[in-house]
Write a structure and sequence with these properties.
CATH architecture: 2-Layer Sandwich
Distance between the termini: 13 Å
Pfam families: CutA1 (PF03091)
Number of domains: 1
Helix content: 25-40%
Radius of gyration: 14 Å
CATH class: Alpha Beta
CATH topology: Alpha-Beta Plaits
Number of helices: 3
Structural class: alpha+beta
Organism: Methanothermobacter wolfeii (Methanobacterium wolfei)
Order of helices and strands: EHEEHEH
Number of strands: 4
Strand order of the largest sheet: 2-3-1-4
GO molecular function: copper ion binding
GO biological process, one term: response to metal ion
Family: Belongs to the CutA family.
Length: 105
């Protein structure tokens, strides 16, 4: 089983740094980066607006806890957005490649 993990960061540089580590450590087969998004959210009783960057991490579902732990170690936020979305289908060839590229838990 596979998953996409959606992560927001403070900027593209932080996304690139975290994404590269996840791929180097074989926690992810691939990381896509969306360089800039606008985020509006509640934080500490206030409405905040920020420019952020997004990582979309493609990985094996079993690696999700390890990815969450690693991202928290690398991330600049106290409470980063890290959300796992199950992959329920797709190209068999691509999913086989994904499986071959991540470390086995």
């Amino acid at each position: 089983m596979f998953t996409l993990i959606y992560i927001t960061t403070s900027c593209q540089d932080e996304s690139e740094s975290i994404g590269r580590k996840l791929v180097e450590e074989r926690l992810a087969a691939c990381v896509n980066i969306i360089p800039s998004i606008k985020s509006i959210y509640h934080w500490m009783g206030e409405i905040e607006e920020d420019s952020e960057s997004v990582l979309i991490v493609k990985t094996a579902q079993e690696l999700t806890p390890e990815i969450v732990k690693r991202v928290k170690e690398l991330h600049s936020y106290d409470n980063p957005c890290i959300i796992s979305i199950p992959i329920t289908g797709g190209s068999r060839d691509y999913l086989e490649w994904l499986n071959d590229e991540v470390k086995k838990p």
